[in-house]
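Task 17 of the worksheet. Students: predict the tertiary structure of the chain below and write it out as structure tokens. Keep your answer in the requested format; marks are given for formatting as well as content.
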Amino acid sequence: MHDFSAIARQISFEALQIQLPQADVEILARFVPVADALILKSSLRELRGAVRNGVPGNFMQRLHRVYNRKISDLSRVFPALHTFETSFRTFVCYMMQDIYGTDDWWRDFYAYALSLNTTSRKSMPSAIGQKAISSDMADALYKFAGTLVLDKEVTNLLQRESKGEIRLSDHQIIQFSTLKDLRELIFSDWLIAKNYLVSEKPLTQANFLEYFETVRTARNNLFHHRQVAASKNLTSHLIILLDAIGVHLPSSYDSVLHQAGRSISFTAPIEKYHLGLHPVSRSYTITYQSAEQDHAERVLSGTCESEVVMNFMYSEKAIRLERLSHMKVVLNQPSAPETTQT
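Model answer:
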């Protein structure tokens, strides 16, 4: 069995350069088994200044907030990357349809890639319909087809199509592409592909490759729950690439956040066996007004005002947030203990 108290003591000392009180070590030890080790260490390092003159009594609550803020920061990058990936998938579909005159541009290469696993191997196609393709494009299509062949859901969809149940379009198939597939389908015939870029701002093949790789790396890190910072490079590269295909990222991103619906509601009590940093939860009253309606109140729990405000925003419908004109947050003081007369 792991000695999580020893691990907590070690990582906190490495990050903070001081020894935490034993009570804090034990609380941290209950979080170590389920925490992302790198995010936890980064959160502890961020609080190094807070312990310069000693460990404050609310240190664990502050660590809890920093750690969860970093998790929340990851989620904020997601809408931008989602916009990027879905927009480029659609762009590639229409570009390939226009160049080759069919939405079945992927089928011959899928059949070829599938045949490599059988005894009746086919020759790699050299054209799509009547239009010849370059060797680089053939390689890109073959790699994309290889992605499809390995996906069981694609196999199931094609089986349903063979039974006449559905008709698959390239827009459905492209959903199974990787960003690397999309990059290669554009990059391999750049002289043709660049004619489909709508932005008047010049984008070279080298720039495209560099910027796309920045986004691809960030996307893969995010989807594997590794730390991703919304760095200047990432945001600028996202804006430039999406601008090239006619998408204005700032307004698209704001629209997604503005229309955010309710968060998922999970209802379950915290039990003694649950691992994690469970700080003291405080009660707050939120007084708010939407449009011409009367003031309303809600009581919510959280570790701080900002957490309560975020919980309130996530729990409200987008249309109500749109009309929100006033909001006040007040900490509810605990009731004074009853006294007994003697």
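Marker's comment: Residues 336-340 have pLDDT under 50 and may be disordered. The longest strand covers residues 282-290.
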